[in-house]
């Protein structure tokens, strides 16, 4: 969907045929257990799709870390999208960790366009969480929603490292976590 010159794509088949598990649905046109639901499939296979380009950013982060993301709209509907907002939430279960909205401006038919550079700082956490970032296009009749998984962890406090030593090759990485760490061979 990021390719602005893509004229479309096709699937080999939408339904499993002759003992081949290659479709979205089983041979009886039912969703497959553990497979994509039609709603999940629609997130990236609708006339309008919300995309996220992580630009090398991880999907695993630590409290206090700022993640810079890039949200895009790929629009191939019948009319331009006008005056819509991209509303996003980052939730861990039922708890909202962060939320906001971005103005999309006009998105013309046949365009793939970045909405806005976007970032969020992982809030303080007491335990690791599986978080879901969900983005929705609102204020228009165009359906578009998408979601992405993140794994977020509490910030690790440095630990005292007296009576510990490390070899020269690993010392720089471990010294950040263990301030009292010595190099092997030092008294």
Q: What can you tell me about this protein's structure?
A:
The chain has 187 residues and is mostly beta strands. Helices cover 7% and strands 42% of the residues. It contains two helices and ten strands, in the order αβββββββββαβ. The chain has helices spanning 38-44, 171-177; strands at 48-53, 60-62, 66-75, 81-92, 95-107, 111-121, 129-138, 145-153, 165-166, 182-183. It has a five-stranded mixed β-sheet with strand order 2-8-7-4-5, covered by helices on one side. A three-stranded antiparallel β-sheet has the order 1-3-6. The chain has a two-stranded parallel sheet with strand order 9-10. Strand 7 (129-138) and strand 8 form a beta hairpin. The longest helix has 7 residues, at 38-44. The chain is elongated, with a radius of gyration of 23 Å. The mean pLDDT is 85.
Compact overview of the structure:
This protein is mainly beta. It has two helices and ten strands, in the order H-E-E-E-E-E-E-E-E-E-H-E.
The residue ranges in which pLDDT falls below 50 over 5 or more consecutive positions are: none
Please tally the helical runs, counting DSSP H or I stretches of 4 or more residues.
2
Order the strands across the largest sheet as they lie in space.
2-8-7-4-5
**Overall pLDDT metric:** 85
What composes the largest sheet?
A: 5 strands, mixed
Write the H/E string, N to C. Answer: HEEEEEEEEEHE
Helix-residue proportion:
under 10%
End-to-end C-alpha gap: 59 Å
Determine the strand fraction and express it as a percent band. Answer: 35-45%
- Quick one: overall form? elongated
| Strand count | 10
Which class do the helix and strand fractions yield?
A: mainly beta
Quaternary state, please? single chain
Our Rg estimate from Cα atoms comes to 23 Å
